[in-house]
């Protein structure tokens, strides 16, 4: 018996890192997994791996910052795999650790578009169907940067705090409709998200001031395990919550 048998999951940013690990884990637990990412080449590879392992998968590339692209992704998922039972808003980008006075307006806007507009667009698109069916699960990948003040720059920190606000609002407001909405706040995870980052020296110095209390970074599979729990019936009473998965870093 697999935990997610016959459920359809829609996972964003699934071409890499945490999203890829969640897609693999959900597929292994019997879900039909729709994977999306801005990078089609990565989706092809991940879809191939899931199929090789015996999972059911479909994919389409798209930019989650574009509401029309998001609607097209949701429509394709519905056509190919059926109604969405589990939405995982995982895609996100960093902000070069820019403090408020240094972040350009363009970078600020792009971080907001990907990290908070995108999750809002997907929630807006799937919620009516979930309400109609009286069930649905939404999992938003925030960050300990969404709980603490200086784990990244101003834009990333603001966007991840906003994602927690969206999580709590949806979690409470739709609780009577059979829908659960939770967030995960990972600490450092070994992924490619920092590739190509050109940090602000001042912002980097300020954010690194707390690094001494970080025990270790996680592997993406350790976050996928939390995402599996939140999607499972074992989490039936967990709603509007933020599950911190940081190995104890913020406990200091
Ligand atoms: P990752 O390895 O960079 O994977 C994220 C994927 O999303 C990448 O393939 C990325 O493509 C894609 N993506 C970026 N913008 C997109 C857009 N507009 N539309 C569709 N796809 C897009 O990152 P990760 O570390 O797994 O991060 C996943 C989530 O966890 C993010 O929300 C991140 O903020 C959060 N998180 C990560 C850490 C960490 O330490 N890794 C810690 C806490 C929270 P590109 O490579 O082209 O950008």
Structure, described:
There is one protein chain. This protein is an alpha/beta fold and 252 residues long. It has a single domain, classed as NAD(P)-binding Rossmann-like Domain (Rossmann fold, 3-Layer(aba) Sandwich), CATH 3.40.50.720. It is 43% helix and 15% strand. The protein is built from seven helices and seven strands, in the order E-H-E-H-E-H-E-H-E-H-E-H-H-E. Strands 3-2-1-4-5-6-7 form a seven-stranded parallel sheet, with helices on both faces. Helix 1 links the parallel strand 1 and strand 2. Helix 4 runs parallel beside helix 5. The termini are far apart. The mean pLDDT is 97. The structure holds NADP nicotinamide-adenine-dinucleotide phosphate. The site of NADP nicotinamide-adenine-dinucleotide phosphate (NAP) has 27 residues, from helix 1.
Please describe the topology of this protein:
Blueprint (H helix, E strand, L loop, with lengths): L7 E5 L4 H12 L3 E6 L2 H13 L3 E6 L5 H15 L4 E4 L15 H29 L2 E6 L12 H20 L5 E8 L14 H7 L12 H12 L10 E4 L7
Parallel strand pairs: 1-2, 1-4, 2-3, 4-5, 5-6, 6-7
The structure holds NADP nicotinamide-adenine-dinucleotide phosphate.
NADP nicotinamide-adenine-dinucleotide phosphate binds next to helix 1.
Q: Report the major sheet.
A: 7 strands, parallel
Bound molecules: NADP nicotinamide-adenine-dinucleotide phosphate
At CATH level 2, the architecture is: 3-Layer(aba) Sandwich
Can you tell me the CATH topology?
Answer: Rossmann fold
Structural class of the secondary elements?
Answer: alpha/beta
Radius of gyration: 17 Å
The coarse silhouette is globular
Classify the helix fraction into a percent range: 40-55%
**What's the helix count?**
7
- For the largest beta sheet, what order do the strands appear in spatially? 3-2-1-4-5-6-7
């Amino acid at each position: 018996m697999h935990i997610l048998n016959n459920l359809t999951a829609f996972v964003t940013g699934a071409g890499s890192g945490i999203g890829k690990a969640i897609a693999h884990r959900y597929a292994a637990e019997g879900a039909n997994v729709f994977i999306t990412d801005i990078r089609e080449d990565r989706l092809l590879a991940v879809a191939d791996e899931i199929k090789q392992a015996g999972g059911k998968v479909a994919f389409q590339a798209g930019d989650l910052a574009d509401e029309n692209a998001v609607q097209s992704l949701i429509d394709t998922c519905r056509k190919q795999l059926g109604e969405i039972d589990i939405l995982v808003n995982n895609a996100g980008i960093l902000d070069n650790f820019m403090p408020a006075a240094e972040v350009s307006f363009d970078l600020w806007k792009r971080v907001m578009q990907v990290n908070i507009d995108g999750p809002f667009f997907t929630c807006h698109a799937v919620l009516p169907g979930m309400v109609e069916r009286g069930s649905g699960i939404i999992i938003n990948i925030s960050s300990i940067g969404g709980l603490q003040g200086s784990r990244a720059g101003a834009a990333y920190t603001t966007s991840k705090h906003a994602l927690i606000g969206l999580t709590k609002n949806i979690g409470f407001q739709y609780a009577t409709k059979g829908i659960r909405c939770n967030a995960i706040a990972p600490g450092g995870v070994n992924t490619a998200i920092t590739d190509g980052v050109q940090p602000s020296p001042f912002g980097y110095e300020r954010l690194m001031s707390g690094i001494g209390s970080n025990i270790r970074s996680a592997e993406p599979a350790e976050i996928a395990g939390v995402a599996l729990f939140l999607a499972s019936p074992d989490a039936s009473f967990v709603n509007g919550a933020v599950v911190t998965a940081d190995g104890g870093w913020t406990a200091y």
